[in-house]
Amino acid sequence: MVEATEAGNFIKMPGADALYEHLTNVLLNIVKERPEAALQAFESGSVLTKAGASETVVHSEETAARVKGASQAVLDLIKPPKKSNGEEEEEEEEEEKEQAPIPDFMAESSLLEWAGFGLGKEKTYEWHLSIQNLATEKELTGVRFWGIIRGTQQDYHIVEAKLEEYPEEEEAEGEESKNEAMGTGANECIYFVANTCTDAWTQLPAVKASHVILATQMKRFFTGSLDASVLGFPRFPYGEACYLRAQIARICAGAYAVPQNVFTVDPEDEEETVNENEEYGGITPMLCGPSTWVHGRTHLLMEGRTTAWVDPAAEDEEDEDEGDETEKKSEDKVR
């Protein structure tokens, strides 16, 4: 910018170069994009350029629609799921579901940020809303944010949870009988994954013993797509969803640590069921050391299970043999 003096000379004002460069960048972007509403594009482009945005500051209608859709998807996270009263046609009679209890993900994330990990407050809150809606819609218990597994194309955000009642399963035969039932062993928990907080959550399939055995023999990068094939040797023909679930089972079995006395085992229980200690009062930071932490999950055996597998056919034969022996003994006594 210049200013004329009484003598007719022009004096260069401070900041003129910056203003000229700013106007040049804005007009250049308008010429490139050629928007229909050039005046509105000039105003918005000027603001974005001043804020240090990317080179392209003029938004087309397609870009504006995409931004609007993404914003609406985030706003939908705030709305809790609704339950129907049996009349699907009348939307007005739908009632909001009572929110399922979940941990305070915001507080947990702040602790992780002290250690140099975290998603940022904005993203953490969005994921908190997404997890809350998932837990409420599926009526889950024991919900927690398991973690993130990086992929070459997209990342997996994983949630661990339990069901109040697991569906009854048909009696398996052959190799399928080696798989642990839902709610027990490696299938004690169920897992949901999503690439972004606005995506629908996908439940991973139950882990199978054969999948775990194969997963221990190979190292592959994840792509971030559950439908992708898992290439490499040995052959894993079940897809990335099963491969991801098998690796989650391995990580949980080998790297799940909890403070001492968090869980207790009833000595009178023959199955040695692990329960949460209701009297646990926390850990003292001054005494927090390696000796105060214990392993929190059952280890996986080489056969891909947490407990040794017993062939049902062999059990039936043993029962028959025992029955025959008791019959022989009874006959001998009679004689």
Structure overview:
By secondary structure, the protein is an alpha+beta fold. The chain has eight helices and twelve strands. β1 and β2 form a beta hairpin. Mean pLDDT is 79; it is low at 1-8, 54-58 and 87-93. The longest helix has 23 residues, at 312-334.
Lay out the secondary structure.
Blueprint: E1 2-4, E2 10-12, H1 16-33, H2 38-50, H3 61-78, E3 82-83, E4 95-96, H4 105-114, H5 121-138, E5 140-149, E6 156-163, E7 190-194, E8 202-203, H6 209-215, H7 240-254, E9 257-259, E10 263-265, E11 274-276, E12 293-295, H8 312-334
Antiparallel strand pairs: 1-2, 3-4, 5-6, 6-7, 7-8, 9-12, 10-11
Helix pairs in contact: 1-2, 4-5
Q: In terms of structural class, how would the helical and strand content be classed?
A: alpha+beta
Helix content: 25-40%
Name the shape in a single word.
elongated
Beta content: 5-15%
Average pLDDT score: 79
Task: Please outline the major beta sheet.
Answer: 4 strands, antiparallel
Q: Count of DSSP E strands? A: 12
Question: Measured on Cα atoms, how large is the radius of gyration?
Answer: 31 Å
pLDDT < 50 stretches: 1-8, 54-58, 87-93
- Helix tally equals 8
Separation, N- and C-terminal Cα atoms: 124 Å
* Strand order within the widest beta sheet: 5-6-7-8
Topology order in helix (H) and strand (E) letters: EEHHHEEHHEEEEHHEEEEH
